[in-house]
């Protein structure tokens, strides 16, 4: 078993890939077979495994979620009560609830069992920059 906390600095809403850090962590710990659990320690961002070959995928996903859950200042979101931290805060919590904060990835033969085009992403849902903590937990 091994654990590590990594930090990702965001510049606002969007997807931030950290596959390389996860691969390095698994390699450094000499895992043969096991499970990497990835957990983000926040309530207004989430995690995704998504295509990492074409950057348009990230652009389209970000645009889709912005349309699905607009800021609380949008007339369609008048029902939102939690607005203390700005018009992007409650929508960020909703987006995080629709996605996930924890992902399990099998380790086979010392490597993450990701598909050819799969990458691991932090999905930032807030407008302003944040420093996000992600826990990597490797078990055999």
TrEMBL record:
InterPro entries: UPF0047_YjbQ-like (IPR001602), YjbQ-like_sf (IPR035917)
UniProt cross-references to PROSITE patterns, sorted A to Z: UPF0047
Highest taxon, organism lineage: Bacteria
UniProt xrefs under Pfam families: YjbQ
Family: Belongs to the UPF0047 family.
PANTHER family: UNCHARACTERIZED PROTEIN YJBQ-RELATED, UPF0047 PROTEIN C4A8.02C
UniProt-recorded name of the protein: Secondary thiamine-phosphate synthase enzyme
Gene source species: Rhizobium mesoamericanum STM3625
